[in-house]
């Protein structure tokens, strides 16, 4: 069974990205083993920090995953700093990190109409810099996400069906 690691780009408890993450994991059921990374525990990137337990745990989890699934909001037309910080930690050693040739899948989330499409393309560019492999499928954007979460549960049948089909392709491609 493929192992997926979910990296969510929002730390807040009521986050719609976190709600989407939970919905995707629930929809996957027993077709994948899913874990979520705790990026809140990471220090700010500083190359002087050695042997940090949270950094080691993140790198190990990415290394062990068959695929990394990013579910992230767009902040100021790009990815949130907390997510970029996590990516930066995992990106060392340069061009030979746990992200090298790692299969990745991206879902972006937005409170507005654009669904985080700019963060989507920024993230692909960042992943290319680490020789990671973003899934070359249709882009999954979740617009107006805040309106689709009730009691922590994300509901949008159309988006879940669309995302589910793309995730099935992603799972199949992991072999
Ligand atoms: C610092 C900041 C910057 C934001 N910039 C954007 C943006 O560029 N584009 C956009 O669609 N939404 C932007 N938003 C709104 C987010 O899409 C919205 O707050 C979303 O719900 C955040 O995701 P979350 O619910 O997972 O925390 C921004 C929000 C914050 C806090």
From TrEMBL:
Q: Which Pfam families match?
A: FMN_red (PF03358)
All copies of domain NADPH-dependent FMN reductase-like, residue ranges: 2-144
Among Gene3D superfamilies, the record links this protein to:
3.40.50.360
The molecular function terms of the Gene Ontology recorded here are: FMN binding; oxidoreductase activity
One Gene Ontology CC term in the entry: cytosol
Which PANTHER family does this UniProt record tie to the protein? CHROMATE REDUCTASE, NAD(P)H-DEPENDENT FMN REDUCTASE LOT6
* UniProt-recorded name of the protein: Chromate reductase
Q: Which organism is it from?
A: Citreimonas salinaria
């Amino acid at each position: 069974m493929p192992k997926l690691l979910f990296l969510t780009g929002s730390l807040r408890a009521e986050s719609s990205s976190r709600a989407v993450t939970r919905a995707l994991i629930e929809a996957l059921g027993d077709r994948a083993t899913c874990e979520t990374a705790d990026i809140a525990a990471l220090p700010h990137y500083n190359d002087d920090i050695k042997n940090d337990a949270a950094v080691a745990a993140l790198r190990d989890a990415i290394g062990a995953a068959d695929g990394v699934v990013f579910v992230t909001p767009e902040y100021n037309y790009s990815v949130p700093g907390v997510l970029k910080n996590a990516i930066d930690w995992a990106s060392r050693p340069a061009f030979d990190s746990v992200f090298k040739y790692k299969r990745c899948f991206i879902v972006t989330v937005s409170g507005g109409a654009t669904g985080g499409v700019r963060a989507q393309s920024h993230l692909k560019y960042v992943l290319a810099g680490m020789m990671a492999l973003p899934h070359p499928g249709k882009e999954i954007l979740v617009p107006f996400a805040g309106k689709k979460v009730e009691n922590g549960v994300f509901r949008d049948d159309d988006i879940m069906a669309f995302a589910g089909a793309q995730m099935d392709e992603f799972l199949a491609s992991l072999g």
